[in-house]
Amino acid sequence: MAITILDCYTDEPAGLGVPPYLGTYPRYVFGKVVEETGEIPSYLTIDDLRAHIFYKGDFHEKMTTDIRVYNLTKNYSNIREILEKTTELIIVLGVHVPGKYLSAIPGTLHEVISLVKNLKCRKVLTGPAVIGTSLEGGKTFEKADMSLFDEIRPFQFPFPKVASYAVLGAQLVVQLPDYRIVEIESGRGCTSKGCNFCTEPIKSKLMFRKREDIVKETEALYAAGVRDLRLGKQSCFYDLPSPDKLVEEINHDFKWRTFHIDNVIPNNVLTPRGIKTTEAIVKYCTPGNVAAFGVESFDPAVVEANQLNCSAEDAYRAVAEINRLGKERGENGMPKYLPGINIIFGLEGESKATHEHNMRWLKKILDDGLLVRRINVRQVVVFEGTRLQERAGLKFLKKNKKHYWKWRDEIRHQVDMPMLRNLVPLGHVLKDVRTEIYDGNTTFGRQIGSYPLVVGIKGRLPLKEFVDIKVTAHMLRSITGEVFK
Predict the structure, then answer these.
(1) CATH homologous superfamily for the domain 179-423
(2) Measured between alpha carbons, how far is 167 from 182 in angstroms, rounded to an integer?
(3) Mean pLDDT along residues 232-255
(4) Angle at which helices 312-326 and 352-367 pack, to 10 degrees?
(5) Nearest Cα residue to 224 out of 286, 182, 280
(6) Which CATH fold would you assign to the domain 429-483?
(7) Is CB count within 10 Å lower at the N or C end of the chain?
(8) Would you say the pTM of this structure is higher than 0.90?
(9) Mean pLDDT of 306-318
(10) Which of 351, 310, 319 is nearest to 338 (CA)?
(11) What distance in Å separates the CA atoms of residue 435 and residue 446, rounded to the nearest whole number?
(12) Pick from 99, 309, 319: which is nearest to 198 by CA?
């Protein structure tokens, strides 16, 4: 049997697998195949398959700038032979948190079905798409005819199995042409009551991996050449057993280029245990780190109706606490550790007053001199099995949709842009910006990390190289810069 993994990318409330991130699912599947068969499966991305079908193997410059086909693997040159020999194609797919990506486009169910339907092999679907997927907010999840798939396989392995699969799956990275930020899973489920819109509580009860298993996985990844990782696949990093010891043990003796975390419930930052965890993150992780706060709304009516994680007051206090300990700048020019804030439109109880509450608290954060790395604003996706679907569905999305662009633009102009000016003033130098992709005569780059700041640089610089840049202007959510020598 010749098994091929087709990575169509994943994005969930807890867990990111869209390039430059490498998610958990393809690595676990890889490790499972190795353990059970002794064979090394082939790894392809949806970019490989798109390029094979659209460009017929004719590699040219457009394929270095078209984000549909930007993330080719080392296997692309042999893709025809790989597909002809494949007897089972395991398709990893599923987006639960729609976003915009600088250099990748995840696959949809409809697209993937059209791309693989003529392949002569057994087709298995796994990943978050098993319970739904959508690349766009403001609607229900994508529906498609699933009869093409010979099997729809559960996408979460038990943690005792993950212990070995994750270590064996580290070898997947040798089939990649360049770096990936590897997403590390540390827990499932949520300690909160469970926000009404979220899919994490319906996927799993609360559980955590053993710390020694996580450390062994990172050691295997380091040995395979990985230098960038994020402890991001959990609902709240601060909920883990001894998170301070985890970051210390992973950091020990290794020279990580990027070592970041992701999701944080703001209330957990404010406890004595939370303060100890923040101190460890600042000490052992690399600069540019971001605690993504699932605030979702500062409106108390929306907070109550949707069982959100924290009040507006506690969210503000958590922002201030992370600033107190993490605002100092690191060697790459970014603060060591800052909060990020997620805002969602379309939740139950939303009204015009919701935007007023959001703006009042966001402006307070700005006016009080606190820094936030980014504010993510998106429309909710209504997934089957969530309380949002049962209680409200699309009701509030339809009711307030006419306001969303105005509300978002006010956040962008009145908060995001002045916040960026405070974060990276004119003339400030950011080090080790990786040139990533062209748009016309502009090169766009980012530092490697969790929610890195996008930099537009005039002219076409060589791609996939590191440069230092000096800030020359501020946009709504990005900056422009020039090479600093």
Answers:
(1) tm_1862 like domain (3.80.30.20)
(2) 13
(3) 94
(4) 30
(5) 182
(6) OB fold (Dihydrolipoamide Acetyltransferase, E2P) (2.40.50)
(7) C
(8) yes
(9) 96
(10) 319
(11) 7
(12) 309
